[in-house]
């Protein structure tokens, strides 16, 4: 059984519609199970579920929530929770508003460096997304010929410390684990030792997260080398946490290294996670 528990559609910063993503999962990657985990939003669930039912693939309904711990960005995957849980909905709305509200400041900084991008340019790229974010700004830069690929926008412009970087709100990590659990879901830390989060996610921190309700660690991910995977697998074993693997697929928004099914979750770990 082939299981991929971390993918994105155009409801956040992927390029496939939810239905296209599900079809590609089944027909191209030959997956049996795929999770839709758009950033901070569940708006693609219904479309993805309808397509999954039509073609006969199991959909796991999920999300990737932007959180912060000790000043570092940490992404939290939530699975099969109540999307109408009031406290969680309110927190996600705050995160999404943070994405939208920083846009004018980012565009102003770009303009100071001769990169003329408007809100309308970004909206043309974000389309059906729940909020406009840095990937959509990057896509607007590509569309207007300033850069050749989305990655160029992040390297030097939009990443932390970049010429046009602007911070935004991210939910507190421990409280968000508790919110996902209160909404009846399962919580897994995404790619925990990439993008600086390795500085704050120690074995001790994972232990405290497990006490707060954390269910698992995404171990097998493109951003983790073999030594990191071995260490994370050992931490998960010590804490009796589920080990997941996934592609972090974004369609053409990321390189082919993030193709659907690039990394997989073992069937017994899915059973432990969702029962």
Predict the CATH topology of the largest domain: TIM Barrel
Q: CATH homologous superfamily of the largest domain?
A: Metal-dependent hydrolases
Number of helices: 11
Helix content: 40-55%
The tally of structural domains comes to 2
Which range does the strand content fall in?
5-15%
Low-confidence stretches: none
Number of strands: 8
Judged by helices, strands and strand pairing, the structural class is alpha/beta
Cα(first) to Cα(last) distance is 16 Å
Class of the largest domain, according to the CATH hierarchy? Alpha Beta
- How does the overall form come out from the CA principal axes? globular
Overall pLDDT score: 97
* Biggest β-sheet strands, sense, barrel: 8 strands, mixed
Order of helices and strands: EHEHEEHHHHHEHEHEHEH
Level-2 CATH architecture of the largest domain: Alpha-Beta Barrel
* Rg: 18 Å
Structure commentary:
The chain is α/β, with parallel strands linked by helices and 275 residues long. The chain folds into two domains: 3-83 and 173-274, TIM Barrel, CATH 3.20.20; 103-158, DNA polymerase, domain 1, CATH 1.10.150.650. Helix content is 42%, strand content 15%. It has eleven helices and eight strands. The protein has helices at residues 18-27, 45-55, 86-101, 103-112, 119-126, 134-143, 150-158, 173-182, 203-212, 226-239, 267-274; strands at residues 3-4, 33-36, 58-69, 72-79, 171-172, 186-189, 216-220, 242-245. Strands 1, 2, 3, 4, 5, 6, 7 and 8 form an eight-stranded mixed sheet that branches. Helix 1 runs parallel beside helix 2 (45-55), helix 5 (119-126) packs across helix 6 (134-143) and helix 9 packs across helix 10 (226-239). The longest helix is centred in the middle third of the chain and has 16 residues, at 86-101. It is globular, with a radius of gyration of 18 Å. The two termini are 16 Å apart.
């Amino acid at each position: 059984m082939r299981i991929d528990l971390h993918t994105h559609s155009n409801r956040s910063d992927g390029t496939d519609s939810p239905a296209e993503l599900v079809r590609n999962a089944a027909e191209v990657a030959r997956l049996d199970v795929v999770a839709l985990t758009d950033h901070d939003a569940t708006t693609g669930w219904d479309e993805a579920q309808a397509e999954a039912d039509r073609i006969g693939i199991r959909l796991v309904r999920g999300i990737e929530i932007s959180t912060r711990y000790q000043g570092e960005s940490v992404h939290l995957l939530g699975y099969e929770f109540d999307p109408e849980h009031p406290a969680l909905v309110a927190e996600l709305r705050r995160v999404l508003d943070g994405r939208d509200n920083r846009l004018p400041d980012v565009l102003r900084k770009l303009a100071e460096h001769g990169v003329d991008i408007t809100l309308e340019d970004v909206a043309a790229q974000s389309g059906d997304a729940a909020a406009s974010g840095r990937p959509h700004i990057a896509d607007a830069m590509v569309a207007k010929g300033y850069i050749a690929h989305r990655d160029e926008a992040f390297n030097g412009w939009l990443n932390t410390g970049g010429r046009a970087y602007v911070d935004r709100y991210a939910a507190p990590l421990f409280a968000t684990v508790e919110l996902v659990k209160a909404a009846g879901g399962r919580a897994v830390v995404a790619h925990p030792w990439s993008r600086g989060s390795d500085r704050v996610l120690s074995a001790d921190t994972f232990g405290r997260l497990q006490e707060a309700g954390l269910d698992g660690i995404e171990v097998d991910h493109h951003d983790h080398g073999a030594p990191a995977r071995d260490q994370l697998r050992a931490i998960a074993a010590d804490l009796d946490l589920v080990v997941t693997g996934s592609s972090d697929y974004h369609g053409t928004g990321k390189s082919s290294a993030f193709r659907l099914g690039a990394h997989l979750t073992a069937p017994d770990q899915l059973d432990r996670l969702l029962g």
